[in-house]
Amino acid sequence: MTRQQMRGDGQFVQLDDGAMHVVQDGRAGAPVLLLIHGTAGSTGWWDPVVRSLAAAYRVIRVDLLGHGKSASPAGGYAVPAQARRVGAALDRLGVDRVAVVVAHSSGGNVATALAEQRPGLVAALALIDTGPSPDAFISQGRLGELLMTPVPGRLLWRLFNGAIIRKMMVNAVTRPVEIPAANIAAARAMSYRTLVATNREGLNYLVQQSIPARLTGLGLPLLVVFGAEDRRWHAAAFAGYRVVPDARIEKLPGVGHTPMLEEPETTSALLLDFAAAAARADR
Length: 283
Description:
Layout: E1 5-15, E2 18-27, E3 32-36, H1 47-54, E4 58-62, H2 79-92, E5 100-104, H3 107-117, E6 125-128, H4 141-147, H5 150-159, H6 162-170, H7 181-189, H8 192-208, H9 211-216, E7 222-227, E8 248-252, H10 259-262, H11 264-282
Parallel strand pairs: 3-4, 3-5, 5-6, 6-7, 7-8
Antiparallel strand pairs: 1-2, 2-4
Helix pairs in contact: 1-11, 2-3, 6-7
């Protein structure tokens, strides 16, 4: 990796309670876009949109601790703690300003917490299918309930093989897209403790205060992108983001929970357009 061009080389950034896996693409001196995945995700979930984004930006992707290639944290999975770790990683990378933090699903909780903690670091937020509040969640059925129950859940997680996890991931999308094997392997490698704790702490964060309520007082440019056929969050609930002043909300017809896989070209175009507008506002 040179100072001029970053080509997706992974590296590990040592933090106080574990090493964080980071992947960088684009030009070293360009404005920074930070990409944060959701529960059971990894840097690989952003692959379909990185090439377009990296043409104009320094794109930094992270594996949250406990996910992907990152270490399991010594200090737990609370959303504010995960946000502090991301902020610390950026400090170690020499990043003092992020043009847009782009986050998917529960990664939007971490992005919001980062903006709360470090308002001088975050210039704008783009949330992709990030549920606004607990009541927006769609029940994942009996299997989903059992998976979150300690005794049967731990056994189920041990029994889940790649084919079962692939089926669960396919159920999260609406369009017929191929889930990359690397994404499935990353989810399979995640510990049951990480799975349960991440879900529990994400819910706790929303119960304490909804994402729109948290963002209203921050005064940051906001883009919300969601699939009209999302099977994890009620699509109508995304209207709740309208309480955030000047929020831009984009609904993608026929798309499910993962627009960057199901509709990467449209998702990239929305992100690039928003980043350009946010940069003008930041100046």
